[in-house]
Design a protein that fits this description.
- This protein is mostly helical.
- The chain contains ten helices and no strands.
- The protein is rod-shaped.
């Protein structure tokens, strides 16, 4: 049994299996050295040692497949996806990373972890494209109230701008809401009118 501790099979075994064998050997040596050990204690020590040696078949699995899926997950950008689906994926990704770091799992558990991470990746939802709305808000923010006629059109514009900024700051707005907001704000911007400036006419 002590030879088993020096084998490649021992080195490849799960840490729990290695620990069990070490304890079984230590227990066996203690019983063997005892002059008062009963036959039952001897039999128990032998059975424990036999089971520990047999358990060496439970070896660390191959992490290559799981690592490949992890590499894909780590290449993605948070801002491209909805917060909820990203958080769900990250939770599974972190669990998978811990498994790889530990290097102490059976192949069936590794494969199950890889499948779970693949499912989490497949469940990622693309976030809305906020670029156009952001640009429109930036333009609208440059409009000075003093330069425009203060009427219902201006009030509508201000309300639309406030609404657009709130949508931009919200968590995971849908693409439909973003598109509708772009239409609403751009329409309101088109309706406002500059205060007539006679000096420009004179120029």
């Amino acid at each position: 049994a002590k030879e088993a501790q020096k084998s490649d099979e021992y080195e490849a075994a799960l840490s729990d299996v290695q620990e069990a064998l070490d304890k079984a050997i230590a227990n066996g040596e203690e019983v063997a050295a005892s002059t008062t050990a009963t036959q039952e204690e001897i039999d128990d020590a032998w059975n424990l040692l036999f089971d520990a040696v047999q358990a060496l078949q439970f070896q660390n699995g191959n992490m290559a497949g799981l690592q490949a899926v992890l590499d894909l997950a780590n290449s993605l950008q948070k801002e491209d996806f909805t917060q909820a689906s990203w958080d769900a994926m990250v939770a599974v990704r972190d669990e998978a990373q811990a498994m790889v770091d530990a290097q102490d799992s059976l192949q069936q558990d590794i494969d199950a972890m890889a499948d779970e991470l693949v499912n989490a990746l497949n469940n990622l939802e693309l976030g809305a494209d906020l670029g156009s709305l952001l640009h429109l808000i930036e333009v609208a923010d440059t409009y000075e109230a003093s330069e425009y006629i203060q009427n219902d059109a201006w009030d509508t514009f201000e309300a639309a701008l406030e609404k657009a900024e709130a949508l931009l700051a919200s968590t995971d707005p849908s693409q439909d809401d973003v598109t509708a907001m772009i239409v609403e704000l751009s329409t309101a911007m088109a309706e406002i009118r500059l205060v007539p400036d006679k000096s420009k006419l004179e120029d």
